[in-house]
Amino acid sequence: MEIGTRHDDVAAYVLGVLGREDAEGFEQHLARCGQCQLELDEFRSFTPLLRDPSARAALSMSARQPVCKVTRSILYVAAGFVVAIAAVLSVVQSLAGGPGEPVEVSSVDQAGGIGYQQASLFEHV
């Protein structure tokens, strides 16, 4: 390992993930580097939090997941019902409406005059 990167190994050393040679090299560096000694003390205060998550937090996370899955399933079913009801109402309304109210349609003829023709919404013009 390069000498310049020893400063970056404090956290890895505290967590015990350095190999034996790297750990020995870091310990030699640590004996001469006050900055790394201070960082080592800071990281050691966090080591218990990083290595051993509390059983309560793990239980809390595992208990929460099924609730989220159930809630998500209920939302999907509800959304499906809303879409189905909207589709049924749309079809019923279009079938029950009959031919519809007459609509005025105007167009310009080739000669430049304006004419109009009344047509039902569902009739072909």
UniProtKB/TrEMBL annotation:
It comes from Lentzea tibetensis. Keywords: Membrane, Transcription, Transcription regulation, Transmembrane, Transmembrane helix. Residues 9-37 form the Putative zinc-finger domain. Pfam families: zf-HC2. The chain crosses the membrane at residues 74-96. This is Zf-HC2 domain-containing protein.
